[in-house]
């Protein structure tokens, strides 16, 4: 049992975990990974001092990056996940029996770690016969593949180190090339209140490449600093402001159980506060 573990969001502000149990720690020249058990959030994965995922609230992140694009699309059969090594995104997408998933994770060790230490997040996703797991560089995959996908979900770290390439114009352009007609690209874009450049750059690139480039929001308690932004890009018209009744019909037909997502939340998530409108203007 340890006393205090800090996550510094800014030089003078952050959050901390107290009275946690250290489950695993690994430090190398490239990264510092810590896994702790906490009373409030269950197991918490921290990479280079920043919370990546928790057992308690990961459902919000995974549901919103899955069901918003899938139900916006309306006829999704093929999903590509870039990253997502904890398995939570694959588990959520695989709730749709008609969808096949290709997942590209750069590090096999991340998969093995998740299966061993985070089974509450990944479940049996990695054993599904509808999951095609590729250990490869995601940026190179989208550049080289001949496959087409209805939805691409970029479940990445923030744009630092290995994750930086997944926020470039070139990467987004390569994603567009492998989207099927009416396809949707969604991305994690951090907390706009503290990471506004990350969101601004991505949406700028989206609007250069796609007919629609915007973001939608969700509040995730362990990602402090305000609502989290998810990038949304597509050439299909009107998918970011679908009628709630249409979304309800689509969602009701799935019989999927969710803890955060519902059609009303879906529709409202695209309503942006003024400070975020200004960031992406």
What's the gyration radius in Å? 18 Å
Kindly state the number of beta strands.
13
Name the structural class: alpha/beta
Count of separate DSSP helical elements: 10
* The CATH homology group name of the largest domain: Vaccinia Virus protein VP39
CATH top level of the largest domain is: Alpha Beta
Instruction: Please tell me what the overall shape is.
Output: globular
Any idea of the CATH topology of the largest domain? Rossmann fold
Give a written overview of the molecule.
The strands form 3 sheets. A 7-stranded mixed sheet has the order 9-8-7-10-11-13-12, sandwiched between helices. Helix content is 32%, strand content 31%. β7, α2 and β8 form a beta-alpha-beta unit.
Short summary of the structure?
The chain has helices spanning 58-73, 88-93, 108-117, 119-122, 138-144, 169-177, 196-209, 244-252, 263-269, 274-280; strands spanning 4-10, 13-18, 21-27, 32-38, 42-47, 50-54, 78-83, 100-105, 131-135, 149-155, 179-188, 212-218, 228-234. It is of the alpha/beta class.
Layout of secondary structure:
Layout lengths: L3 E7 L2 E6 L2 E7 L4 E7 L3 E6 L2 E5 L3 H16 L4 E6 L4 H6 L6 E6 L2 H10 L1 H4 L8 E5 L2 H7 L4 E7 L13 H9 L1 E10 L7 H14 L2 E7 L9 E7 L9 H9 L10 H7 L4 H7 L1
Keywords:
Spermidine Synthase, Chain: A, domain 2, 2 domains, 13 strands, 32% helix, single chain, 4-stranded antiparallel β-sheet, Rossmann fold, alpha/beta, 7-stranded mixed β-sheet, 281 residues
């Amino acid at each position: 049992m340890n006393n205090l573990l800090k996550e510094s969001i800014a030089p003078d502000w952050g959050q901390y975990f107290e009275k946690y149990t250290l489950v695993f720690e690994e430090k190398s020249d490239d990264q510092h990974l810590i896994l702790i058990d906490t009373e409030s959030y269950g197991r918490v994965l921290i990479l280079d001092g920043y919370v990546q995922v928790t057992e308690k609230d990961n459902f919000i992140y995974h549901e919103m990056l899955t069901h918003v694009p899938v139900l916006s699309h309306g006829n999704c059969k093929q999903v590509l996940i870039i990253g997502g090594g904890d398995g939570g995104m694959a588990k959520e997408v695989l709730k749709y029996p008609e969808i096949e998933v290709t997942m590209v994770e750069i590090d096999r060790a991340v998969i093995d770690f998740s299966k061993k230490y985070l089974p509450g997040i990944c479940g049996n996703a990695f054993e599904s016969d509808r999951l095609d797991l590729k250990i490869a560089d995601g940026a190179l995959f989208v550049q080289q593949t001949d496959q087409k996908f209805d939805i691409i979900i970029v479940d990445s770290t923030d744009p630092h180190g290995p994750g930086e390439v997944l926020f470039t114009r070139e990467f987004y352009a390569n994603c567009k090339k492998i989207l099927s007609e009416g396809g949707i690209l969604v991305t994690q874009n951090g907390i706009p209140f503290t990471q506004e450049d990350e969101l601004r750059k991505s949406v700028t690139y989206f609007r250069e490449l796609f007919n629609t480039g915007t973001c939608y929001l969700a509040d995730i308690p362990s990602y402090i600093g305000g609502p989290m932004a998810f990038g949304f890009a597509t050439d299909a018209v009107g998918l970011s402001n679908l009628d709630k009744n249409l979304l309800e019909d689509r969602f009701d037909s799935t019989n999927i159980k969710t803890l955060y997502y519902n059609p009303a939340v879906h529709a409202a998530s695209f309503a942006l506060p003024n400070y975020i409108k200004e960031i992406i203007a």
